[in-house]
Amino acid sequence: MEQAIIAGGCFWCTEAVFKDVIGVTEVESGYIGGDKADPTYKEVCTGTTGHAEGIRVTFDPAAINLPEIYDVFLGTHDPTQLNRQGGDVGTQYRSAIFPLSSAQGEEAEAAIGRWNAENGKMAVTTIEGLVGDAQSKPWYPAEDYHQEYWEGEGQRNPYCQAVIPPKIMKLRKSFQKYVKA
Hints:
Its EC number is 1.8.4.11. The chain is an alpha+beta fold.
């Protein structure tokens, strides 16, 4: 199994997409990229901690490889929006990739380059440090009630009902071969 850490706006939305991707065995919502140790959701929502709402994806590279994970990520949110996704505004909603190795960093650069070339636009997705390096920022799992949010509370949340189904439809339309049966 391998892991990747990505941030593409609201982690509830990104988590819901990746729960439907083949080869993905676990998706954990959390916070990364900030300066405060053990941040809470309320603190991250202020935009003052420097963290992004992200997900840590555990996947089987025999079923889906890292470049494909990055392609699905870039193709199911708007990587051209700086510090926002739709109505969610602030640095905590930035589009970012947090590589776990230098090879993942190279794959992230290649994926952003592919996305730019295929879409004729420039993604503002950042590649932020190598997780685990001295200058990197640690991963903090979000509170339990954020995990698997769409499968539970999200089904009753009007925000989620408005935002998540279009992202899942985009996954199913644009990345059909990566969708779980």
